[in-house]
Amino acid sequence: MSSRSSDQAAAAAAKADRRADAAAARSARDDAGHDPMRPSDHVDSTAPAEATGGPRLGPIGWLRFAWRQLTSMRTAIVLLLMLALAAVPGSLVPQRSSDPNGVIAVRDANPDLVWLYDALQLHDVYTSPWFSAIVILLLVSLVGCVIPRMRHHWAAMRSRPPRTPARLSRLVGFQTVPGDAADVERAEGVLKRLGYRTERYADSVSAERGYLRETGNLVFHGSIVVIVVAIVAGSGFGFQSQRLVVEGEGFSLAGASLDTLTTGQFVSADDLPAFGVHLDELDVVYETENPDAIGQPIDFTAFVEVTEDGETHPGQIRVNEPLQVQGSDLYLISNGYAPEVTVTNAEGTVVFDEIVPFLAGEDPNMSSLGVIKLPDGLAEQVGLQGFFYPSAAQLDTGAYASYFPDVLNPLLTLQVYTGDLGLDSGVPQSVYQLDTEDMTQVAGRDAPEPPLLIGPGETVDLPDGLGTISFDGVRRYAVIDVHRDVTQGWVLAGAIALVAGLLASLLIPRRRLWVKATDAGLEVAGLARGEDPRLESAVDDLARRLRGDDDAPAARQGDGRASPGAADASDEPPSTGEPAGDPRA
Amino acid sequence: MPDVSWDSYSLLAVYSSMAVYAIAFIAFAFDVARRRDPEEQRAHERELVTAGGGSAPTTTAPATTARPARRNLAKVGFALTVLAWVLHAAGTVMRGIAAERVPWANMYEFALTSIAIIVGIFVFVQLWRDLRFLGVYITGLATVFLGVATVNFYVSPTPLPPALQSYWLVIHVFVAALGTGFFALGSGLSILQLLRSRASGLAFVDRLPGASALEDLSYRVSVIGFIFWTFTLIAGAVWAEHAWGRYWGWDTKEVWTFVIWVVYAGYVHARATRGWRGTRSAWLQLIGFAAILFNFTIVNVFFKGLHTYSGLE
């Protein structure tokens, strides 16, 4: 088959389809062959005969027409490309699900565009109706395509190989080997040993193999449906929660004790597993020798004690090794420092004695930002805001920075505000943020007094004789994520089936071979059903076996392998898997 | 403790391989640029006549054994490519020795390894098919990408951060590099297919296999890439579940891996659909490979996400 003529046929077919003329499309189907992912005798989505009378198309006809359009391969390709394109904006604009801080930053930076982000749901691309619409259309198209194919494949699996075509000479790899009708029996044996399903027709044998190709194809598409359904179902039955826990402290999975809790539609806070987690120690190792990587984290290990059913047992959580408890997984998400701070008032009474987590930002050396709110006990409401440096060093500008992420030279620097903390306004406040709108800075960069600098074990005076503050020590904290995803096993099973199906559908050739006794000898030829670049060599191989000389070199050239030393590949294209037409026609 | 001297040997080998790739590229380029021989000219005219007549062209590529001297340039180019690849592979292995782990844990190392895989596939695929006509493309790609990698992405070897300490690093990233290698070869074939599908009048283009043969080759190579890419996607999801507590979170790198997978899924379907075979499916192949390059360069460097392992600051 020449490359150019097949290109012309394809071009002609495309043109015919554009006119949406059912008759032309039908003949194009016969001319241009089948699509290689499907059996050659599969009926693609060309309009049915009853749809040809355009004007007389009733509502059911139109529905059927629309359904066939939707489930056609051409629509599937367009939908796939739309899906690829639709996924891109979510990587350009921060998403609420993966980067909530980025969302806030973008909206603050572009207040004029906020309406556009909201109108197009650019911060929730992957749950937006327009993205979901493409996914749903694609799934419907897929199901509508796969179900008829399953029916067709089921029938094909149970049927015998088809009648031998009248003229084998039109088919791929046609050749004649010596032999007569008595050898057809032997030929059938050879084909059976090669794994073909065979059927005798008079003086010929018809053979087919590779049914697993279409099975794999259907498994591949079916497992996509399984994966999507499992993902959707999983979001309804799972939960996800987070908790920041300081060394020496613990939490239980009762909702009130968690920092965040998201539950699926069918899960209530009462359904959470009943266990408690106590963080004994968070062990962190930093690189200290490699000059190019000083301070790079090497290992995080959280040593915990898990309490369930009244019993306590130890456990470990590491970054790539979550801990599983009662079907839920515990992950180590991040870490930081929590200085222990005590505040006494002017009378010497302790008004605050807590371990305060400071949040590490982007700084690899862990300089961390924290807030202490003192609403009661002092002469007025006091807010403290400042940094914790695990290894403090003073810069030339006078400011401090951390030069190493581990605790070598800890320092707390705090700015002091007095006034109204705004806690009584009823608006919920973050414990990590200080609203300074109604407060005055009394110590810090914008105040007459410098910020407080407190080393470990030190006590310094608060401004205006308010009292004293001491930095008693520092502990690490871990942020632990607890979640349950009941369907992720299904997703994994779907993914494994998907790979298996993909391998079968792309690598197993589906082909028919025929051996027919004629006056000239045994005629041998093959037909590809789908991509089958090695069909010719398969026919050659069969011919060799029938001749009885397995080791002889190929009698015909063009087994698809360029001879060594030839610089240009053979111009003869390997079989494109396009048969000249259905041999039974 | 990483050994600095191994890393400098590695760099030396990589720089040498770049130089040899460049010379191989020149040899291949001269081979491509050579003019039509008289015999070839006659074949070309015959082909034009038959094509004009509407009948199937029956010309085959002129037997190359007839002019062994002329084809020496391609042989020289290929021999140099093999030499450069050996140097390149040695440099990659030495980088792994220097870092005491697999040499694909940051952007520089991934570039080093994946380009070695691209060229390696090109070298070994010759055992199956003579695809030396891709030499210009492959050696050009290798020279430019290695140059960009050493100049822009180089970082000294550092230990693995905790998130990368997993056997999935070995599997997931290596399979991604394998997939990239097959896609790279496939897009070279698709570019040639596009050149071949229109009358160019260029001697080099006319010397190539037919457009439909190139399309078949590109498809067969790209399908292997697609299988590896599917595996990369799934292995990545399994690893993400271990490391980050969810198997899929639409992280920027996940988004682009998905986009690439969907584009190539479209490509595989296009091959099986009337009106999408030929030029259109070749363009899809190229869009897919462009997305891979975009994912590796722009997404790595400029996009914010969890896959921040480029090692660049």
Automatic annotation (TrEMBL), chain B:
<dbReference type="InterPro" id="IPR045062">
    <property type="entry name" value="Cyt_c_biogenesis_CcsA/CcmC"/>
</dbReference>
<feature type="transmembrane region" description="Helical">
    <location>
        <begin position="217"/>
        <end position="240"/>
    </location>
</feature>
<feature type="transmembrane region" description="Helical">
    <location>
        <begin position="76"/>
        <end position="98"/>
    </location>
</feature>
<feature type="region of interest" description="Disordered">
    <location>
        <begin position="41"/>
        <end position="64"/>
    </location>
</feature>
<keyword id="KW-0472">Membrane</keyword>
<keyword id="KW-0812">Transmembrane</keyword>
<dbReference type="InterPro" id="IPR017562">
    <property type="entry name" value="Cyt_c_biogenesis_CcsA"/>
</dbReference>
<feature type="transmembrane region" description="Helical">
    <location>
        <begin position="110"/>
        <end position="128"/>
    </location>
</feature>
<dbReference type="InterPro" id="IPR002541">
    <property type="entry name" value="Cyt_c_assembly"/>
</dbReference>
<feature type="transmembrane region" description="Helical">
    <location>
        <begin position="167"/>
        <end position="192"/>
    </location>
</feature>
<dbReference type="Pfam" id="PF01578">
    <property type="entry name" value="Cytochrom_C_asm"/>
</dbReference>
<feature type="transmembrane region" description="Helical">
    <location>
        <begin position="255"/>
        <end position="270"/>
    </location>
</feature>
<feature type="transmembrane region" description="Helical">
    <location>
        <begin position="135"/>
        <end position="155"/>
    </location>
</feature>
<feature type="transmembrane region" description="Helical">
    <location>
        <begin position="12"/>
        <end position="33"/>
    </location>
</feature>
<keyword id="KW-0201">Cytochrome c-type biogenesis</keyword>
<feature type="domain" description="Cytochrome c assembly protein">
    <location>
        <begin position="102"/>
        <end position="307"/>
    </location>
</feature>
<keyword id="KW-1133">Transmembrane helix</keyword>
<feature type="transmembrane region" description="Helical">
    <location>
        <begin position="282"/>
        <end position="303"/>
    </location>
</feature>
<protein>
    <recommendedName>
        <fullName>Cytochrome c assembly protein domain-containing protein</fullName>
    </recommendedName>
</protein>
